[in-house]
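Consortium newsletter contribution from the modelling node. Members have asked for a concrete example of what our holo predictions look like. Here is one, prepared for the adenosine-5'-triphosphate complex that several groups have been discussing at recent meetings.
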Amino acid sequence: MSDTAIHVASVTKRFSGRVILDRIDLKVERGETLVILGGSGSGKSTLLRLMMGNIRPDEGDILVHPPGQEPPKSLRSLTPVELDDYRKSIGVLFQSGALFNSMTVADNVALPLREHTDLPDETIEIMVKIKLELVGLREHADKMPAMLSGGMKKRAGLARALSLDPRALFYDEPSAGLDPVTSAEIDQLIIDLNKQLGVTSVVVTHEMDSAFRIADRMVLLDRGKFIVSGTPDEMRNSTDPLVRQFVHGLTEGPLTDRRRGGAYEVDLLGSDI
Ligand SMILES: Nc1ncnc2c1ncn2[C@@H]1O[C@H](COP(=O)(O)OP(=O)(O)OP(=O)(O)O)[C@@H](O)[C@H]1O
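And here is the predicted structure:
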């Protein structure tokens, strides 16, 4: 069996003719936690949506394993049923947790099971308890989302993402809007789930502390281009000016030079000075 869970092969994505991702090559290995880094608008969420099969590349290909299928198949070639099976085999945690406010926590977690399986209610009830226990929310099953703190909403969203026993989990900014302690708790949960369940995890984040805590490997995107991939140590010790500036949050470097739009003196006086 191949060790690669998802293979992004030379993918280009355009929106309204503008290149958003430019020939991206990336392999997500089974069981790893891969963190996608990059500035605002660099194309991180678009890459995530492509890997989830929500949008299609304009060029290139994305190879995945729909349940029970080996060797990998191109997302383009999947039948609607296979694509549906693939989508059911992945879990997604959005920034807000994306809970339905009119349902209890338990009903939110039960929803995918009710929609996509024929399991009897008693079995669903047990499965929901297991998922809520995994994220530390079993005591809060009957609460409405409005009664939960930000961190608890994320946990509930995660329990729902886990409801169909996904093989891969996708997280879009899991720490957004959380205080540092709650954010560290969510990171620990991501690490624990990855270890306990052996799921492949792909995480988009801006938070460097969080990225260094959870990543087995990191990739950096810049303006739709793939810049580098490496372990947290490799990224921390990189001598590439762009990686250094991004990873260490430096105020001077190629990112800020670019934003300033080139040297002011040259702009004023010409390039002969
Ligand atoms: N459906 C769409 N239609 C048109 N443009 C889009 C669409 N989705 C994304 N974009 C554009 O693509 C670019 C990359 O967006 P994306 O959300 O992937 O970036 P990101 O790195 O996740 O940014 P952020 O960190 O700010 O969330 C942005 O300029 C965005 O405006």
